[in-house]
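Handout, page 2. Input:
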Amino acid sequence: MGFLDRYFGLSAQGTTVRTEVMAGFTTFLTMAYIVLVNPAILSQTGMPLAAVAAATCASAAFASILMGLVANYPLAMAPGMGLNAYFTFTVVKGMGLPWQTALGCVFLSGVCFLLLTLGGVRQMIVNAIPKPLFAAVAGGIGLFIAFIGLKEAGIIVASPATTVALGDLKTPAPALALLGLLIIAVLSAWRIKGAVLIGILATTAAAWGLGQVTYQPTPYDLKALTATAFALDIPAALDIGKTGFGILEIIFVFLFVDLFDNVGTLVGVSKRAGLMQPDGSIPRLNKILFTDSIASMAGAVMGTSTVTSYIESAAGVAEGGRTGLTAVVTGLLFLVALFFAPYAQFIPAAATAPALIIVGALMMAPLKEIDWEDAGVSVPAFLILIGIPLTFSIANGLAFGITAYAVIKLLRGQARPGDWLLLVLAGLFVARFIWLSAG
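Output:
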């Protein structure tokens, strides 16, 4: 215990081994769905499902443990949602690239990440984001994950007439989710440690007791990992003459989306954990970004799409996680999941959804830091706040907010030479929107 305290600085952060372990368990439970979802998506490219399941667990374990040991940050990592869909439906199915070549593109985007990190470019981008917008990012991500929780629980459903509508609360899944939400909310109000974890486990037990958990384990062999491991085709990804400039486009999208998703997640978790410095800087930023770069390359080598930081880490932070020990525990649990991947079905979505909703509520706190009377700040902040959940993308929300902030500042005559990178970012976002519209 003494070694862990010294290595991770537990006492300095006002936390304990018990708190960090509980936070790690909570983070794992809220993002364990990726063990099932990522293989389901990537297997549509022709990749063996069991191999992708193994690669998902292995890459999440490696990246999360690396984040904890190197950066000492409570940030868990795994193959990113959205990026896996782009990998499958746009790159492989849409453009017709073999999945091996697509993995090569993921690896090359990781190399670009590393070069940008070593050159200080990624750090400059983070520092260029106006500090008042950080609070909006945290709040927007809070709405985003709460919306995901409501959707996964069936409390909110799709509607052709109104886009979304209230689900049937009499059905088991929404009812169980509301029960879990009540348990976590009451325990949190009583300031009971482990409220989120207790709520997840209690709801899972209730779901099993009511026979609401569908459990269909599939055959699984750890040797299956070798089917996608080291299968990436870097030479094909580099062969522009053969594949055209579409390869550069693919690498850029992997790079662009992961960069700003990562920045948004990092800001949101830092604000929630109280780890952000008074001047708005993020401690150990270089180590965090370095770890993210290595994780992207390692994921491609293991046989999965881009590995990135997960906003579900905020669930562990809400449980008191403040150091890298939280991420290490999460990583170790993914390592265990490597042997029991099919058993992830044991925990239903109705049990983890309440945790996401509660964490989303807790992440609203930083919004009080925004000057809502100043339209130059409040309008960009609002665009971030509403853009993230409604476009289902942290990157898109950031794009709306940063672009609006830069344009308003420019038209008000308040732009300064030191704002050059902010203006460049706004220009890139505008170009991206034009490109997406043209596509």
